[in-house]
Specification:
alpha/beta; TIM Barrel; eight-stranded parallel beta barrel; globular; binds pyridoxine-5'-phosphate
Length: about 250
């Protein structure tokens, strides 16, 4: 009998709860309260991106999440020295380095790991020594996964944006194959494999069915659904889709 696949974890990204708060410069809605609802809906971790322009999440949000939430916090960030120092002091369970451009609406691509290796290496070492697991957000490309692994990180997060955005069946299949291949490669190098970006309630299934992937980080689709059904239910629905896919129920 084939061994059952391990369960897959859901990281709920609550950045856009803070986006709503910042739109009116109010104190609500509170991303920490949102994280508590996501926890009740089955979230396994909470992800936030502390951007250089602080357009949504702020240091105070991260501090409260790390101190008050009974879930691991995954902090997405650039190599900005002020933010690196903050991460080192606050010690989230995990940080994930992502590229960042001020003008972008959201993270656009994976890190250029080979280009940035000399800058990444000391920072990865520093945060690892502080007891923080370090992940790099990478495009599903063999050379980038291999370069990331050489830096001594804990995990790669594979960028699923190109897959999620592809509209025709041929490019979807091609991009899914690239994700599967990169996930196998990362696993064979001993890395934990996470994935995320742009996934919604439909596109999540085939990615969740890739056996090497152990965590999916999803934000926009869940927070958008929450407007209609609440965050607890929106999280539960996403977790169910992922679980069904893991059990072989890809539609
Ligand atoms: N993973 C990473 C590295 C990201 O930068 C983001 C967006 O902040 C996500 C996952 C979540 O993407 P989405 O909001 O499109 O689900």
């Amino acid at each position: 009998m084939a061994a059952a696949l391990p369960m897959i974890r859901l990281g709920v990204n609550v950045d856009h709860v803070a986006t709503l708060r910042e739109a009116r410069q109010t104190v609500y809605p509170d991303p920490v309260a949102a994280a508590c609802l996501a926890l009740r809906g089955g979230a396994d971790n909470i992800t936030v991106h502390l951007r250089e322009d602080r357009r949504h999440i702020r240091e105070s949000d991260v501090t409260r999440l790390v101190r008050e939430l009974p879930l691991p916090v995954n902090l997405e960030m650039s190599l900005n020295p002020v933010i690196v120092e903050f991460a080192e002091s606050i010690r989230p369970a995990e940080v994930c380095f992502v590229p960042e451009r001020r003008a972008e609406r959201t993270t656009e691509s994976g890190l250029a790991v080979r280009l940035l290796a000399d800058r990444l290496f000391p920072v990865v070492q520093r945060l690892s020594e502080a007891g923080i697991r370090v992940a790099l957000f990478v495009d599903p490309v063999d050379d980038e996964v291999a370069a990331a692994s050489a830096l001594g990180i804990h995990a790669v997060e594979l960028h699923t944006g190109a897959y999620a955005e592809s509209r025709d069946a041929a490019s979807r299949a091609h991009r899914l194959e690239r994700l599967s291949t990169a996930a196998r490669r990362a696993r064979s190098l001993g890395l934990a494999v996470h994935a995320g970006h742009g996934l919604d309630y439909d596109s999540v299934a085939r990615v969740a069915a890739i056996p090497e992937i152990e965590t999916l980080n999803i934000g926009h689709a869940i927070v958008s659904r929450a407007v209609f059904v609440g965050l607890e239910e929106a999280t539960r629905l996403m977790k169910e889709r992922m679980r069904d896919a893991r059990r072989g129920g890809v539609p």
